[in-house]
Amino acid sequence: MHRRAFIKSAVLAGAALSLPAGFAPFVHRIEAAGPPDLVVAQGASPAGITRAAVNGLGGIRRFVSRGAVVVVKPNIGWDRTPEYAANTNPEIVATVVRLCYEAGAKTVKVFDHPVADARRTYKQSGIADAAAAAGAVVRFVDERKFKDMRINGLALKSWPLYTEAIEADAVINLPIAKTHGISGLTLGMKNCMGVMGGWRGRIHQRIDESLVDVTRVVKPSLTLLDAVRILTGNGPQGGSLTDVRRLDTVAAGVDPVAVDAFGATLFGMKPTELGCVRIGHRAGLGRMDLARMNIKQIRL
User: Fold this and answer.
1) Is residue 33 included in any domain, yes or no?
2) Percentage helix, strand, coil, to 5, in the chain?
3) Where are the strands (E) in the chain, listed by range?
4) pLDDT tens profile 160-205
5) Residue 43 belongs to domain spanning
6) What is residue 18's predicted lDDT score, i.e. its pLDDT?
7) Which SS3 state, helix, strand or coil, does residue 71 take?
């Protein structure tokens, strides 16, 4: 299955989208033909809003074909349990795995290249158990599967990337929304760093350009931003429940720049304030002009 191209449709501005406190007032909803640019689903059940967000974009079969090998890429970076909002919500991961199999996927792989010890992060996050129970192949990254790949990007000319992600029929990116000491926030593009090998600290001097470069190579078919809980301080690792805010929200889109642009608003930021969003928009990776997007809101 070939990766689906990002939707690039211009639409006219319309009535304001009613969103809870913390969302930027300049986000609009636009009635237009065809699938929306973004879906924002809200409700008490992480599994329910995940399904609703995917269905709002046209359903999982838009992204996953029968017989496909799918990589589901959550954030499993830290030795934290789910309530600390340092890793992707395990219910969201399990739900996406189930959706892929419902679409007829042959294999669904779940992995990350964590900062903390992989055995502890996989277990403490709850993701390994939840994904395996849903039928996923859950493994630690194998250093032998990183291959130096030509990128020719804004900052990166080549880098060792994980072949299982690059060779998959579809990559579904499942970041959690949280603060980050270097990039400001860690959202979808930042989550793509999990397929990078080598010394990732080397990209910090040009972090935003590097994130755009890696995302362009990974080519996520779909991004689902976990904002069930967001980490508002001391990210990306967290450690205090006082830094966690519950929003019970999942945002979904095929455009990684648009999803991250929306994610910025969860923290009271304009999309232009997030470097990777601004650079990704300028480089043609996606769009950040939320006020001109067709945004569908679903409340469960």
Assistant:
1) no
2) 35, 25, 40
3) 38-42, 69-74, 107-110, 137-138, 146-150, 158-162, 170-174, 176-180, 184-186, 222-231, 244-253, 295-299
4) 999 999 999 999 999 999 999 999 999 999 999 999 999 998 999 9
5) 38-299
6) 37
7) strand
What is the C-alpha end-to-end distance of the chain, expressed in Å? 33
Burial class (CB within 10 angstroms; exposed 0-12, middle 13-18, buried 19+) of 115: middle
Q: Looking at residue 160, what DSSP letter applies?
A: E
pLDDT digits (tens, 9 = 90+) for 240-261: 999 999 999 999 999 999 999 9
Comparing CA positions, the residue from 193, 195, 140, 190 lying closest to residue 162 is 195
Number of domains making up the chain: 1
Q: For residue 34, name the pLDDT band (cuts at 50, 70, 90).
A: confident
* CATH number, domain with residue 169: 3.40.50.11440
Cα 5 to Cα 8, 222, 254, distances in angstroms: 9, 10, 8
Please say whether the beta carbons of 195 and 142 come within 8 A. Answer: no
pTM given for the model: 0.91
Q: Are 75 and 114 in contact (CB under 8 A)?
A: no
For the chain, what percent of residues have pLDDT higher than 70?
89
Are the beta carbons of 155 and 206 closer than 8 angstroms?
A: yes
| DSSP structure string for 182-243 | TTEEE-HHHHGGGGB-S-GGGGGGGHHHHHHHHHHHH--SEEEEEEEEEE-SSTTT---GGG
